[in-house]
Amino acid sequence: MKRVKTMTFFSPLFFIFLPVVAWVHYHLPDKYQYLWLLAASLVFYLSGGPAFAAGLLAISLITYGAVRGMEKAGPKRSATFLAGAILLTLLMLVLFRYGAAAGDESSVLPVTWISAGFLPAAWIPAGFSFYALTALGYVMDVYYGRTEPEHHFGRYLLFVAFFPSILSGPILRADKMLPQIRAGRTFDYEKSRSGLYQMLYGYLLKVLVADRLAPMVAEAFDHYTDLSGATLLWGAVLYGIQLYCDFAGYSAIALGAGRFLGYDLPVNFRQPYFATSVADFWHRWHISLSEWLRDEIYIPLGGNRKGKARKMLNLMVTFLVSGFWHGSGGNFLFWGGLHGAYQVAGNVPQMLRGGKSEPGTSKQENQAKQGNQTKQTKQTKQAMLGPGEEAVSTRGVLPHLARILRAVRTFLLVDLAWIFFRAPSFRVGADYVYRIVTSFHLRTMTYYGEYLLGQAKGDLALILLCIGAVFVLDLLRESRYPVAEKIAGLPGLIRWAIYLGLVLFLLIVSVRYYGEAASTFIYARF
User: Fold this and answer.
1) Mean model confidence pLDDT for the chain
2) Which residue of 115, 229, 357, 506 has the smallest Cβ count within 10 Å?
3) pLDDT per residue over 438-462, tens digit each?
4) If you compute the radius of gyration of the chain from its CA atoms, what whole number of angstroms results?
5) Residue 307: which region, alpha, beta or left (left: phi > 0; alpha: psi -120 to 50)?
6) pTM for the complete prediction?
7) Which residues are catalytic?
8) Domain boundaries in the chain?
9) Which spans in 170-261 are helix H?
């Protein structure tokens, strides 16, 4: 049975839905706003089919009930309710999330073919693995004293089902989102304007870069046995860029929609390919998931407080959990394990120098668990992600060159892991890497035009121009240049000429390539 298509950020109806929701939202008294947003969120989500309500209501009732049970049971028995919520959430995750992998030989879970016998595809709720972490994180935050319980089920359900974030995140944290829901929002022109600007940037990332790279990446990975290793390396690099622009584009649209409604959602990306170590990369990539894993997996396992060997084990376990969350295939487990190995290897030099990982104090860990990133100490920020890069002098050429080389090294390590993330199985991923190493043949790639990967030279030039623009914008942000503020400060005529020019360019590209690439987001399948 084919899954019903859910309303997405690219659905024509969404461009009517969002402003109508916002207009009514701001005209309602604060105490009724949550009811309207809850109704809008359910309409948005259940457009994929009423069966989606099963997963959403089940996880919401389980986690809400677990917290109410904790309150009544007291400290001594609250762990029982926490364990029950975790177990039931994991069971639902295996059933719903990995039930979709029925017939996938790469899966390490037999439940994927067992569930296929009684779980229709239309019953597998979209975005479950994202809002399940939002809901489970709430239970753990209450258990560890990081946030106050929400007694009103309607407000709690809105927290779990908030439509800008329900399909692919960012993963919300209760201590940040629930107070905003309780207080209500008033219209702020500057905030709404910046939200629309952020949404526009997200659409540009998705349409102008990610969707244009999709057929090239597919050509490389679908026909890897027919291409030279140099072309496969080129395809892997393009996939790293595609994935970034796709997921960062989605996150920008989600954050922008939230801001348009008056809500501040967590930032999910911060120039990840400018990272100078893999540890630094995870401070910048899918930040809401990284912080969730740190707070709910790494620190409860003991973090860096129980010795160096235990710290390494905790890092490996945390990243294997990350791989499993992305999928049950051996390729995802290897991807997570490889990043865990990177983290362990990154700590070896510090161990050889005799440096000690300072144990986090309870106060520091509580700050990390509260998600208070702006006030965290450097030590607590490193709790899961390992030691970051030390600040280097910006004077002279050599420090800049050294930073560039570290960033290139980090990108290559991350991109190696992306090959397994993109491949349909571990075997294909390993074979892809093997062909890069053993059949490089640079001349075949350049002289015979393999680098085009099915695109015309003019189209590839346009794609590379757009990639260059993204790189420059990220470089400006990395340099803390206030791009958005500078544009907002321009004279109205110039500012609107820029906005309208970008929208027009977006429409032209969309019309020209209409039907060539689906507008579904890569992370929608997770």
Assistant:
1) 84
2) 506
3) 999 998 898 888 999 999 999 999 9
4) 23
5) left
6) 0.87
7) 326
8) 14-187, 191-268+435-525, 277-385
9) 174-183, 189-204, 211-222, 229-260
